[in-house]
Fold Thioredoxin-like fold domain-containing protein.
Amino acid sequence: MEITGLKKQVFDFKQRETDTLVYFFAPWCSVCHLSIDNLEAVHNDQNTTQIIAIALDYQSETEVRDFIAQHELSFPVYLGNEEVKQKFKISAYPSYYVVTNQAEVRSKVAGYTTELGILLRL
């Protein structure tokens, strides 16, 4: 499965050398606003796992860009759609998935997660 980022870059889960931590969020989600800084801190502190975010249930690309700017995110953010949401069976925000380079879900959790909680899943 491929998804397109805000900078029109394409992400293919099967063309990765390492696992990828995928953060599914919605820009209107208050828990996402509270937890995204923990993910940014993990991204800044370690370089072994790829981290990306996928926006779902957004009204416009501008809404997603505002979320990115508000939290000064340094990892790639992609625009998801209903197909992505259904494939990963996203039912709550935020959702954290660790996906292998063979596009298999190794672990997942939903809701607020601390930096330590994120690191323990990697």
Notes: The radius of gyration is 13 Å. The mean pLDDT is 87.
